[in-house]
Structure formats: C-alpha cells, structure tokens
Amino acid sequence: MSEKVVIIKDLYKKVKNQLILNNINMEVEAGYIYGIVGRNGSGKSMLFKAISGLIAATSGEIRVFGEMISDGSFPKSLGLLLDKNGLLPNYSAFKNLKFLASINNNITDEEIEDAIRLVGLDPKDSKKVKKYSLGMKQRLGIAQAIMEKPKLLILDEPMNGLDEDGVRDIREIILKLKAQGVTIMISSHNSEDIDKLCDFVYVMKNGELTKKSDSLKDCQNNIKA
C-alpha cells in the first residue's frame, strides 16, 4: 500500500462568514501527481495554503506525512509555489535563494546554484529580481520550491507568465521529479498541463472538491463551468 502523504478530513474554511472550503476530503498517495482545476476563486489556492499551514482551517483536519497541520506549522519536506512568491526585489536570484535557504540551513551554495540552473536561469547573474520578467520570476519561484529536494511539492499555477519554451521546460522538470519519487500537487487553468502531467484530477467548484476525474474532456468541461 502506498504511503499517504496528505490526508484531509472534513475540512472547512470560512472567511468573513463566507465558506471558502466546504467539507474537503482527500488523500494524496506518494509518488503521484495530483491536479486540481477550477475557476479563479473556486478555493484551489486556499486549499494549498491550508495544506501548507499558512492559514488555519475553521474545522476539520489536515495531516502531512502523518503530522497534524495547523496555522503556522509548515510541513516538513514541503516545496511550495504560490501566486505571491515573496521574492526580494533588490536581491539577485542567488541571494534570494541563499536567504531563504538560510532558514533551514540544510543545503549548500552549489545546490542552490544547481536549482537555479535547472529552471533555466544563471546563478551568477547579479541582476536584481525587480528587473526580471514575469516568466523569469516564475522560474525563480519554482527553483526556490525545489531547491531543498522536498518529498512533497505544491505548485499553484506554475506555468503563469511562462512562454512556450518555459512551459515545456517546467513540465519536464515536474515529470523528472515525479520519476524521482516526489509527490506533486498542481493547479492549472491549462487543461493541457493537467492532461500531460497528472495521474489524478480533482475539480474545485464553489469551495467543494466535487469530482475526481482522469478524463481530459471532463477536466475541460469543469474549467469552463
């Protein structure tokens, strides 16, 4: 039996009396890619933030690698890309990742440089991040998410801002990580990303994880719904 990396039971989240997550139940098994599709505001990002310990659930429980997650308790061995990547605009790519890596202090400068190269950027480039294009910032955000070689990777719209070459590069990286045993959760507006990458597809609508599907046609219909 595969390891259960994430277990979510009866999860609810209210914000100002509005129900953002409505009775979410989900199990994520090790070594697979899980896609979550849905329109803006459907609750995808909120779910990822709850799994990451960045917000507290109103009720229910989340376990990651067997440990209960609550507000402020960041799961072990998690790499995370959200819409707001927290990059420091006046630092270079390397200095940004070096600063973030100093929190856990468990990777070398060489490993940081390797992650930057992997996403197609130059770790020796001294250009400040504020001068980066949106696509370059997205690549750097992905480098930050993967640099510590996490066992669980959560990517919220990782293809945002990327050109065709960038999308192809990041898809290849995601599939290589899966081949190495990394468990991946990904959201995307692009049904092609989901079709090419994901083993399982969940659809988020009005805060509910209403359907599980591995059918591209079903996925496309729910994105448009």
What is the element layout, followed by pairings?
Blueprint: E1 4-15, E2 18-29, E3 33-37, H1 44-51, E4 59-64, E5 67-68, E6 78-81, H2 93-104, H3 109-118, H4 134-146, E7 152-156, H5 164-179, E8 183-187, H6 191-197, E9 200-205, E10 208-213, H7 216-224
Parallel strand pairs: 3-8, 3-9, 6-7, 7-8
Antiparallel strand pairs: 1-2, 1-4, 4-5, 9-10
Helix pairs in contact: 2-3, 3-4, 6-7
Describe it.
There is one protein chain. By secondary structure, this protein is of the alpha/beta class. The chain has 2 domains: 4-77 and 150-224, Rossmann fold (3-Layer(aba) Sandwich), CATH 3.40.50.300; 87-149, no CATH class. 33% of the residues lie in helices and 28% in strands. The protein has 7 helices and 10 strands. The strands form 2 sheets. A 6-stranded mixed sheet has the order 6-7-8-3-9-10, with helices on both faces. A 4-stranded antiparallel sheet has the order 2-1-4-5, with helices on one face. Helix 2 (93-104) crosses helix 3 (109-118) and helix 6 (191-197) runs antiparallel to helix 7 (216-224). The N and C termini lie far apart (35 Å).
Give a concise summary:
This protein has 225 residues and is of the alpha/beta class. The protein is built from seven helices and ten strands.
Q: Spell out the helices and strands N to C.
A: EEEHEEEHHHEHEHEEH
N-C termini distance: 35 Å
Mean pLDDT, to the nearest integer, reads 90
Count of beta strands: 10
CATH secondary-structure class of the largest domain: Alpha Beta
**Any idea what the CATH superfamily of the largest domain is called?**
P-loop containing nucleotide triphosphate hydrolases
Taking all Cα atoms into account, the compactness measure Rg is 17 Å
Q: What general outline do the C-alpha atoms trace?
A: globular
Q: Report the total helices.
A: 7
Poorly predicted residue ranges: 214-225
For the record, the count of structural domains works out to: 2
**What topology, given as strand order, has the largest sheet?**
6-7-8-3-9-10
Sheet-strand content, in percent, reads 25-35%
